[in-house]
Amino acid sequence: MAEPDVAVVGGGLAGACAAILLARGGARVVLIEKESGPKPKVCGEFLSSAALAVLDRLGVDAVALGAVPLDAMSFSARGEPRGLKLPFKAASLTREVLDEALMEEAGRAGAD
Q1: Which residues contact 60 (CB under 8 A, 6 or more apart)?
Q2: What is the pLDDT of residue 62?
Q3: How far is 90 from 88, CA to CA, in rounded Å?
Q4: Looking at the chain, which terminus has fewer C-beta neighbours within 10 angstroms, N or C?
Q5: Is 48 exposed, middle or buried (CB count within 10 Å of its CB: 0-12, 13-18, 19+)?
Q6: pTM attached to this predicted model
């Protein structure tokens, strides 16, 4: 690769998304990540309708990756179980799967 126009440090959600968009925009991108691959994370499995729209724009199909559609939530308030229907489209997908998919898409987009 010729000398990069942009170095993106960190291959998490923001870094991978930035690398995808920059590479698609014609920049020579190098994406620097200290880990050799995605790691399981406890947080971040909820994908809102806005997050799903961003993934769609990036060409990452959450459903094809195994995302589970969510239409309701349950919780406890003062020891009483509660629940409600979500007023928007949502899904659940592990961060490990999502991180790997975004890094792969960055590579397909042309980032090194």
Answers
A1: 98, 101, 102, 105
A2: 96
A3: 6
A4: N
A5: middle
A6: 0.85
